[in-house]
Amino acid sequence: MESMTGRLLVATPALKDPNFDRTVVMLVAHEPGGALGVVLNRATEVPVSDVLGTWGTLARDPAVLFEGGPVQPESAICLARMRAQRPRMRGFHPVSGSIGTLDLSIDPDALREKLTCIRVFAGYSGWSPGQLEEEIASGSWFVFDALPGDAFVDRPDDLWPMVLRRQGGILSAVAHFPADVALN
User: Fold this and answer.
1) Which domain covers residue 36, as residue numbers?
2) What is the CATH number of the domain that holds 116?
3) Within a domain: residue 183?
4) Is residue 155 one of the residues assigned to a domain?
5) Which of 27, 22, 56 minimizes the C-alpha distance to 41?
6) 17, 19, 27, 91: most buried by Cβ count inside 10 Å?
7) Total domains, the chain
8) Which NCBIfam families match (predicted)?
């Protein structure tokens, strides 16, 4: 099995689960034991600073919590972008290039010079072994390479059509698929 860690899952119009309607998910882990990702385009109105204090100063606009997915919404996963690719940094687990998950128990002031920004997700999206592969095969997800800025876009509501449009061809037309049309 080839790992899809760091890649984007883009919900197709055929995906029936309302938790994932028009979502873009970044996979932060994809292993034989299953997959874990965070929804990049579901911002809440809760400021990061209201929940995590000084971490809010490192959060990219919009500096709010994001709904990472339906699993354990009381937990937090932090994506961070390092200023330069470094092989090792305490509490940082690489996902793709300079982007990785970050341990929020570390003092944010100790990392301020090493990071360009963070995004914090309440909850996550998870798949049991083989489940994600079955969903992809059934046409629920497109799988695309992520660009470094995808996890930190200023207008997360525009991410779904933006990722589809940049694929070109027929996939760019999917970006204009009406939200209220049901597929049978």
Assistant:
1) 7-175
2) 3.40.1740.10
3) no
4) yes
5) 22
6) 27
7) 1
8) PRK00228.2-2
